[in-house]
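Look over this entry.
=====
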Amino acid sequence: MIFVPVLVNPDDLEHKHLFLVLSSPANIRQRNIEIIREISSLGYHTVVVTTNFPYSILSKLYAESGVDLSTVSFIDAVTRHSIGNAENIPGLVRYINNPANLTDLGIAVTGALKENSGKKVCILYDSISTMLIYISSANISKFIHFVTNKLRLMDISGVFLAAEKGLDPMLLSQLTTFVDTVIDAD
């Protein structure tokens, strides 16, 4: 069976585009899985930055959906915040102490991208909407602007997942200017 991507255009991914994928809150987990499946099927290694689901949950969901977990690594910003201590697993998962700590998140992203240099890499942020629980819209906008510029300079594709009605209009407007393509996934 040949898998045909439906959310992320393979040519755009190859040209290192940045995508904002908007989903209904009820479908955001399914969109995450679909995006990972699509990106993996195209031969990319995906670095998942999660502020929505812990690594342990996402890795199970991906495995159950047929995703080869050797093509995915994680930056988990929720597990330590929820349960305290969790040990990093080199090459697989880096834990951040608090989702609001954008400095540590930025350092972890840089480290994960360097760790995977030489590979076809894509980064997935899940989810921008969840970050609003911990961080103001203005600070999220500044951080995403920083990240999108970093990805462009490093020539890396990126996907930012958000609940379509979970962003204030100003933040949504700013995010759309940072990316190449906005995809309404519902």
